[in-house]
Amino acid sequence: MKIEEELNNINPIPVRTWNWLGVNDISIKEGLQDHRANSIKEGLQDHRAKYPQVLPGQKDNRFARFAAMSSKVGESRLWSSISYEGIGREASVQVLTRYNTGFYLETKPGEKVTDPVRISYSMEEGIPLIDNNAILVREGSEATIIVDYASMDSRKGFHNGLTRIYCEKDTTLTYVVIQKLSEESTHLGACAAKLEENAKVNYVLVELGAKYGVTNVQTDLLGKQSEAHMHTVYLGDRDRMIDMNYRINHYGRETKSGIEVKGILLDRCDKIFKGTIDFRKGAVKAVGEEEEYVVLLSEEVRNRSVPILLCTEEDVSGQHAASAGKIDENKLFYLMARGFPEAEAKRLIIEAAIRPMIDRIPEESIQRAVYEEVRRKLRNE
After folding, report:
1. DSSP code at position 167
2. Residue 42: its pLDDT value, please?
3. Closest of 94, 206, 83, 210 to residue 160, by C-alpha
4. For tag attachment on the chain, is the N or C end more exposed, with fewer CB atoms within 10 Å?
5. pLDDT at 83
6. Counts of helices then strands in the chain (DSSP H, E)
7. What is the DSSP string of 264-279?
8. What pLDDT is recorded for position 155?
9. Are 224 and 199 in contact (CB under 8 A)?
10. Domain map of the chain by residue range?
11. Are strands 241-250 and 186-195 parallel, antiparallel or unpaired?
């Protein structure tokens, strides 16, 4: 596989618009990095075992299977049937053929697992992290998965990951992703999900790190009354580039979707949000809505939002909105008049805006870590 020095025209929007808007796709000055290519270049051994997942030390009886990803699983008919290019074809091919870590989780039919499963990936020593993950939620079961990406130090790193999800009938999955990579790292995160009748997936996505943060999430609501709800919070600082591309496709009758995004931008951050709800023919009485709100803390940030509704079915209901603004001066005055310093008053207002999203994380320890990271960035540390 040829490794390019730059990634061009990646994460494309479903329906192209005027080129001068700069939202159809993006290009970044970093290319795909490969652990095997580095091995040849530097004379190192294959790093396939460098990123072992944090999996249970013994068999977890709550699940039918919970293990490291293998080619036997990843290339099975079910997962091969999920056609999805994600951020870009080259990035997806790299994950599927050259991953150096990943997990496969399959629930038991009818089993409702109440305690979250946490999987942590910690980047270190500049070795690329390429993870291939799959989650199969069997009929009538429920589960919560938390995936945490972090850097052990401030060195430059590279992450390219793909998670494929399949939810059978009458299931509920909560899928949480926390991204806190170092400020010089590149993060490419993709996810594709398919839902059968009366299945529900709740996404909680937290984007706090990486110089280039590029994400793509596609959800297909295939079965009647299936649902997908996305809750995202992001903070962009310094010279970071953030590109989020979400798409929910309604195929089944009476399906529901929601995309809720809240963000904070400061310094010279460049951010693009692309949210698409697509009502396909046959999605009778489907309902979808999306909304983004971003707080702008600098005159130098670049904020672009593209909420899109597509429709080939008449009997549907869709809403979309995007808004941006500075901190409410009345709220700021109110708090400062009661003795709060300006910096503390701003922090309280910002945290109040994003709290509903962070509180959806099902572990308090992770919530506290996210709040601390937000506060650190607001202090420009």
Report:
1. E
2. 36
3. 94
4. C
5. 82
6. 7, 19
7. EE-TT-EEEEEEEEEE
8. 86
9. no
10. 7-327
11. unpaired
Kindly list the distances between the CA atom of residue 239 and the CA atoms of 212, 270, 318, in Å, as whole numbers in the listed order.
Answer: 9, 7, 35
- For residue 31, CA distances in Å to 10, 187, 269, 295, 378 come to 11, 11, 20, 31, 30
Buried b (16+ CB within 10 A) or exposed e, 231-260: bbbbbbbeebbbbbbbbbbbbbbbbbbbbb
Question: Structure tokens of 253?
Answer: 């009758």
Q: Please compute Rg for the chain using Cα positions.
A: 21
| CA pair distance 240, 218, nearest whole angstrom | 24
Please list the ranges in the chain whose pLDDT falls under 70.
Answer: 1-4, 35-59, 74-75, 125, 381
Helices 342-358 and 364-378 cross at an angle (nearest 10°) of 140
- Amino acid identity at 215: T
pLDDT digits (tens, 9 = 90+) for 120-132: 998 876 789 999 9
Q: How many CB atoms lie within 10 A of CB 373?
A: 17
Provide the 10 A C-beta neighbour count for residue 57.
Answer: 6
Token look-up 């020593």 returns 125
> Helix or strand or coil: residue 83?
coil
pTM above 0.85, yes or no: yes
Which pLDDT score is estimated for 58?
52
**What residues pair up with 107 in beta bridges, in sequence order?**
63
